[in-house]
Amino acid sequence: MNPAPHQTRLIALDWGTSSLRAYRLGAEGQRLELRALPWGVMQLPDAGDGENAGFEAAFEQACGDWLQAAPGTPVIAAGMVGSRQGWCEAPYLEVPLAVGQIGGSLASLRNRHGQLIHIVPGLMENSQLPNVMRGEETQVVGVLSLHAQQGQAADILIGLPGTHSKWVQIRHAETQNEVRHFDTFMTGEVYAALCGHTILGRGMVAGDNDTGDAQRSFERGLQVAQTAAGQAGVLSTIFSTRTLGLTGVLDGTGQREYLSGLLIGHEIAALRGMLQAQQRLPAQVMLVGEAGLCERYAQALRAYGFGKIEVAQQATERGLWQLALSAGLLHT
Q1: CATH code for the domain of 255
Q2: What is the DSSP letter of 106?
Q3: Could you give the CA distance from residue 20 to residue 35 in angstroms, rounded to a whole number?
Q4: What's the pLDDT at 1?
Q5: pLDDT in tens, 47-62
Q6: Angle made by CA atoms 249, 253, 256, in degrees to the nearest 5
Q7: Nearest to residue 221, comparing CAs of 184, 250, 192, 196?
Q8: What is each CA distance from 199 to 86, 194, 196, 245, in whole angstroms?
Q9: Which of 68, 130, 138, 193 is the most exposed place for a label (fewest CB within 10 A)?
Q10: Is the pTM of this model over 0.70?
C-alpha cells in the first residue's frame, strides 16, 4: 500500500559504509516508516555498468516507491554517501564551528530520474593529529535538538560509542551551540581485532554476557586503568586477558568480557584525563548508539566519576529532520 502523499514531509537516509537506513518522516519529524537495507557504500547492489549504477539501484530500492507516491518530497542523506568513495563528495567543514552552519552547507546531486538529493557534510578538526567524522555530526544535531526541547542550554559532552567511538565537546554560547572539539577512539575495532586475530582470542568462548560472572569480569576490566599497573597503558595491560585465563581467574566468556571492560576503561580514563587538562569536565554526558553498548559506556563513565549521563533516542532521524529545517528544505 502506497503512503498517503500528504503524510510524507521528508525522506531521510542514513547511508553508511555497510548499511543504508531510510526514514519516511511526517509532520514534526514523526517516523512513518523505516527500511533497513544492506547496501552500504562499499557493498552496493550489482546493477550493471555505469559509474553510479549501484547507488542509483540502492536509492530506488530504499525510497523509489515513496517518491512515486509523494513526488517533490525533499530528500536528505548523511554518512559515507558523502565521502570520496560515496555518491557525491560533501567536503568537510572545519571545527570549531556553529552547529547551525552544517545545515547551510549541504552538497547536492540529481539521480537519473531528476530527483534532487541533499548530502550532509562531515566535520574535520585539522590539528596536528587531524580528526574527522562523517555521519556522527547528524546524530550530534539530533541530540542537541532533543536537548533544546528539554529546555536545557549548557556545555555538554556527546559520546557516540561504536567501532570508532567519538566524543564531541559542545559549547553553548549565547543563542547557539558550537562544536568545539572532538576525539576518536578505535576501541570497537581494536576489540574485534584482538578477539579475532591475536593470541588473546584463543582462550575466549562466546557466552551469555548477562550473567553475574560476566558482569563481574567486565567490571574487573573497567578498573584496570585506575590501578598502578594500569599506568603502563593499554598495550601492556591487554596481555592480562591471557594470563588471567592461564591462572584460572577468568574462564573463556570472562576473558572476552574482561577485555571489553579493560579497553573501555582505558578509553574513559584517557578521556577524563584530557578533559581535566583542558578544564572542560562536563556537567552532562549524552550517549548515542546501540542500547547494550551505551549501557557499558554509562557504567564506565560512572566508574570514572562523570556526572549526569543520559542516552538519547532516535538521534539520527531527529538530526536529519533538523538539518532539513535549517537548510530550508521544509516549510514550517
Answers
A1: 3.30.420.310
A2: -
A3: 8
A4: 53
A5: 877 889 999 999 999 9
A6: 90
A7: 250
A8: 36, 8, 9, 12
A9: 130
A10: yes
